[in-house]
Amino acid sequence: MAEIKPFEMVNYSPDYSDVLSSLITPPYDVISPKDQEFFYNLHPYNIIRLVLGKQHDNDTTSDNRYTRAAVTLNKWILDKTLVRKGKPCFAIYQMDFEEPQGARKRLDGLIGLVKVEDYGVNKVLPHEKTYSGPKKDQLELIRACRANFTPIQAMFDDPEDVMCGLSAPFMESKPDQEAVDSNGTTHRTWSVCEEDSVQKIVSFLKDKSFLIADGHHRYETALAYRREIENQNPFSVDQSHKYVMMFLTSMSHPGLVILPAHRMLKDIKNLDQKASLSRLNDNFIVQEFDFNGRDLESISRQISSELRQYAELGGYFGMVINGEKKFYLLGLKHLQTAISKVNQNMSEALIKLDVTILRELVLGHGFGLDEENSETHMRYTPSIPDAIEKAVTGEVRVSFILNPTRVDQMRRAAELGQKMPHKSTYFYPKISSGLVLNIF
């Protein structure tokens, strides 16, 4: 079973409550260089200086983005910019947001420390593959700072909404913190420190498995760090390196929103559009829809509407090719035939995923790209207008629009010990860095 416990969380001082919205950022992995510069200029105490510091040409092993983050963190603690709770607590964390389709939603959950262990049933489960680069970067940061600046997002099974009942009384009071991020999402936190409430939460979650939704790289980094410390000092009394900060929410929460990570291919040399389309006809029914001078939002709505009809069926994709004023709707002809053409080392749960069908039958068979080449040339976005615009303007050669992966598909793959392809999901909105910190 996964082990969870409260902790002495660190927050910005209440003195900064009026400017808290200027101090937070999204997780490091969705921050572009332009965003990084924006957050640096937003406020001198913005958390960007810790989560994604600037690199300089003259960086050395003793003076770099990680060591500078450590110096800044220590300074902010000493001058009381960041303050520690006096006792172990959980935090209730809520996001009030507008989803891309326009509906207003709320998502809430609990932030605590979870013991870092190897993946396994009744413990922590992954759902997608990771890259080595981000893990190396995050390991350098955790070595220098001994801190978690952003909670990993994970889910647990709670069909009877027990956690909602435990959290609701706290959310009736004024939040400890409230901030609005750069996308318009309102983030709120409440502290849960009373012993009775803490024990009820621990008791309820003690038999749960936690399925990682967002933050696989950070979890695997925490695991690598734990092993590193244990190898250096196997008899250490300090156990803080064995835990990582997580935001936990119910798989059945009505505010849970998963967006697809649409694929965009760059730098495809000698792309033969006619040959690719011909090969796609082997496995897909291909329909064409002209843009007819319509604006980007109108085209995006139509593609989204067409795809949503087949969300449960699977195997349907939108495609926009640079130089063409049209989009294609690809619909898989026969699922079982497709399954026979896909890597048979995969479970059927993975083979049936849209991200797998896209990689194997569209990118592989249709465009002649193996997995390594397609990953090398791939870019991702949760925004349909962004994917279309980049293809139309020539920033990318081809954009593929997908339906989102469902929670039940994630859970099934995880329980089988199978990992989905990279960027199979995009959970929305993103938990902010800076509201709740774990410094150990």
Task: Give a description of the structure.
The chain has 2 domains: 4-257 and 428-439, no CATH class; 261-403, 2-Layer Sandwich (Conserved hypothetical protein from pyrococcus furiosus pfu- 392566-001, domain 2), CATH 3.30.1760. Helix content is 34%, strand content 23%. Helix 9 (296-308) crosses helix 14. The protein is globular. The longest helix has 17 residues, at 216-232. The chain contains 15 helices and 21 strands. The chain has 440 residues and is of the alpha+beta class. It has helices at residues 33-42, 48-51, 65-78, 132-145, 162-171, 195-205, 216-232, 273-280, 296-308, 335-341, 348-351, 354-366, 371-376, 384-393, 407-415; strands at 4-5, 10-12, 82-84, 90-98, 104-115, 124-125, 147-148, 152-156, 177-180, 186-192, 210-214, 243-250, 257-259, 262-265, 284-290, 316-321, 326-332, 378-381, 398-401, 426-428, 438-439. The strands form 5 sheets. Strands 1, 4, 5, 6, 8, 9, 10, 11 and 12 form a 9-stranded mixed β-sheet that branches. A 6-stranded antiparallel β-sheet has the order 15-17-16-19-14-18, sandwiched between helices. Strands 2-3 form a two-stranded antiparallel sheet.
